[in-house]
Amino acid sequence: LSKPLLSDSSKVIFIRVKPDNSGVVTDGVKHSMNPFCEIAVEEAVKLKEKKFIKEVVAVSCGPTQVTETIRTALAMGCDRGIHVEVSGKDYEAMGPLQIAKIFAALAKKEEASLVILGKQAIDDDCNQTGQMTAALLDWPQGTFASEVTIDGEKVKVVREIDGGLETIKISMPAVLTADLRLNTPRYATLPNIMKAKKKKIANMKPADLGVDMVSRVEVLRVDEPPTRLAGVKVETVDDLVAKLKANGTI
């Protein structure tokens, strides 16, 4: 659920690469819910309001700061939260596979009927966690969902694909990933924010779930993009061609 965002509505934080080129500086950066995960939370709460499911559990993996994001989900209507504590080098190296292993283990432990995620994170844009979770569980998956309808033990999912819309029907338990047009997330009201403070958040570590956090991907280095050169205005097409020839472009 939680990703460190590098800007908010009140200020802009410039992205800086660490001096050792091992990653991006995130110290002091506010954690905020991934927008697609926010849509997933809204859909889960709506399904509960329609009496299709009994309980909504919000899960986030990361350091202590992610509890703020879980509280946001609780204020939106989730019943309880689970914080899987991941910090230090494990947090920096954590990718879709490690998160999928945690979600799969929790889905089994909680005897979940649906796992609903955002289709992708807005920082790495991996779009892999939902698919990997379904594969590890050997459950059907409905990805890029723009409409979800539950009918008994079946789920009808309208998927957004390159060619338009695709409608599928899958059996529960299943994994769904939310696309942009699935719904419009509600704002957490002040009374619900206050109620969320009393809701339970369980803490656990990946080891408690038997999950190996070793990453199979190694980041060699992170570099800032090259500084853009100043543009040049030309008066005519002939001037443009002359400039391109002088630069060796043509």
**Largest sheet, described in full?**
5 strands, mixed
The fraction of residues in strands falls at: 15-25%
Instruction: Give me the oligomer status.
Output: single chain
Q: What is the percent of helical residues?
A: 25-40%
Q: Give the tally of β-strands.
A: 10
Structural class: alpha/beta
Q: What order do the helices and strands follow?
A: EEHEHEHHEHEEEEHEH
Radius of gyration (Å): 22 Å
Strand order, biggest sheet?
Answer: 5-9-6-7-8
Low-pLDDT sequence parts: 2-11
Separation, N- and C-terminal Cα atoms: 48 Å
Domain Electron transfer flavoprotein alpha/beta-subunit N-terminal: 21-213
Protein name: Electron transfer flavoprotein subunit beta
InterPro entries: ET-Flavoprotein_bsu_CS (IPR000049), ETF_a/b_N (IPR014730), ETF_b (IPR012255), ETF_beta_N (IPR033948), Rossmann-like_a/b/a_fold (IPR014729)
Keywords: Electron transport, Mitochondrion, Transport
